[in-house]
Structures are given as structure tokens and as C-alpha cells.
Amino acid sequence: MMMHKRMIMLFVCFLFFVIIACSSQDAFPVLKGPYLGQKPPGMTPEIFAPDILSKDNLAFGLVFTPDGNKLYFKLFDPVKDKGSIMCMKRVNNIWTKPEVAPFSGTYYDTDMSISHDGYRFFFRSNRPFPGSNRLKDRFYIWYMIRIKDGWSEPRPLDFSGNINIPVGCPTITFNGTLYFTARLDGTIGGSDVYRSRFVNGSYVTPENLGSTINSKYNENNMLIAPDESYMIVACNGRPENIGEEDLYIGFRKSNGSWTTLKNMGKAINTESDEKCPVLSPDGKYLFFIRYKLNVDACDIYWIDTKVIEELKPDYLK
Question: 27 φ, ψ to 5°?
């Protein structure tokens, strides 16, 4: 009789854990296929993964690994005023539930970028420099190297031996050149677009791209096309802006100079803020965030990159 009761108790416990496990799995939808199984957009921006990334209006920006099997995005915590980098993986063609990336969660981490060979991971952070326990009052670029089981320990990026250069929103080309925005000595406006070339295994001192790209206003986060054929920059306060912050585009000419940045128009921009542009690994889609100031909410959008070709001047086509 005692054995019978024990068997019943064990069976009840087993059912309890099965129910808990099933309910936990049911809480997160099954996402199969590339891009979280989302239907690709056309020439009109659509919210990307609205029930996943936009569910709580707290996901700011994203980046996929070159093989498309990992997604990193920044999750903002308004209570702690902290950003953590989250990770989702595609395992057997099914995406896992978002988890805090192993290298993030303690400090304010944001603005991710991954090299096109998948070897380097860049992000911005206010974490202390090595040998210190003091948080930085500004954000600096940190990087990691691909290792067998993930990523190496983050290290601050140095420019010609100098790690004390606070810059933002790194974006990388095929040849390793980093483009970013920064407020450094000699900036034309509040913040400007800079680049740093990768020479002999290290990044050189950043160079300002000049007044064709930069203005007396703010050039904020940006992306550079892998082949440097165009750049998209979130610009704040320009007279042509539809919202407070709009996405602008500039194209590289055959002589290496750039066209003046042009507002991407109502196909992209609204009275809300558009920012944080990112390309999909295959170059087919443009991601960006739309931040609604009046309700303090943010959604990630995506659109077919054919919109970029339509904005290219005829003499460059």
C-alpha cells in the first residue's frame, strides 16, 4: 500500500513538471526559418517580429551574424536605465527564446556590429577599462574575437594605441574600415561621422568625413554599406527633417568623394524618430527603429533595400 502511494506521488510530481515545462515552452512561440520566420517586407516599412521584439517596446536595434543563425539586440531597462545585449539562436531551424548574452547584463551595452567574416564583434559600453572598477561617464567601443565556444573577453578598441576616444555606433566594411559618429575636437556639429582604417592589424586615428556629410546639426547613429557604396545616417534637427530625427542617405562617387546627405523621404521617415539603421547579412533588407516620443515606445522596422536603389542619383546608376 505504501509503495502504491509513493508511485502515485511520483507520477503526480512528474505530471507537474511536464505541465510546467509545456507551459514554459508555450509562452514563447515557435519561430522557424530565417529572420525569426517573419514574412519579408516589400517597399513599405513593416514592424519586424512585432510579438517578439516589439512586444514591450524596449528592443532598440539589432544585428544578425553573417550566417543568419544568431540575432543580437539591445534590450533597454527603463527602471535601471541600462541596456543589455540579448541573443537568440537558430537551432535545427527553430529560434530560441531571447537570453542575455554571456558578455552583457552588468553594464550599459548597446550599438552592436559584426564584421562580415564573423570574426569580430563590436559594441559600445560604459564598462570600466581593464584595471579599473569605475564606470565610464561616456561610451566607448569594445570588441571581441570569435573563439571556439563563442566570443573572447571584451576589450576596449584602441586607435593608434589610444583607447580614450569615446565614439558611437560602429559599422564595418568588407575591408575592416570602421565608420562611426563621435563628438571629438574639430567636429563640425554636435556629432559628426568619422572613419578609422584598419592598417597593419590596428585601427588608426579617426578622420572626420568633412562638410559634405557632416553639418552644424547632429549626425548620430549610422550604417556603412559593406562595399562603401553608400551610407545611411540618422540626423537630428536638420531643416529637411520630417521628425526630430530622420534617416539620410549619401552615395560614394567614382572618385571616392560623397554626395551630400539626402533625406530618405516619407518612404522611411515619419513624425516619429527614425534611427539605428542596420543591413541584413544578405543585404536584402534595411532594419531601423522608429521611436515614438509621445508614448515613449519603440518598434523595429524592416524594408526591402530596393528603396536604396530608388534613391540613388541617376548618374551613379
Answer: -65, -25
Q: Alpha-carbon distance 310 to 317, whole Å?
A: 10
Could you tell me the domains of the chain? Answer: 45-316 (2.120.10.30)
Integer CA distances (angstroms), 29 to 22, 56, 251, 278, in order: 12, 16, 40, 25
Asked if residue 286 lies in contact with residue 279, where contact means CB atoms within 8 angstroms, the answer is: yes
The fraction of the chain above a pLDDT of 90, given in percent, is: 75
Pick the closest to residue 234 from 272, 207, 205 (CA basis): 272
Look-up: residue for cell 550604417?
223
**Amino acid at the residue 268:** I
pLDDT digit string, tens, across residues 4-41: 545 545 444 444 444 444 444 457 899 999 999 999 99
CB neighbours of 247 closer than 8 A, spacing ≥ 6? 232, 233, 234, 235, 263, 264, 268, 269, 274, 275, 277, 288
Burial (CB count within 10 angstroms: exposed 0-12, middle 13-18, buried 19+), residue 66: middle
- What's the CA gap between 291 and 297, in Å, rounded? 6
Distances (CA, A) of 208 to 91, 112, 187, 316: 42, 21, 8, 24
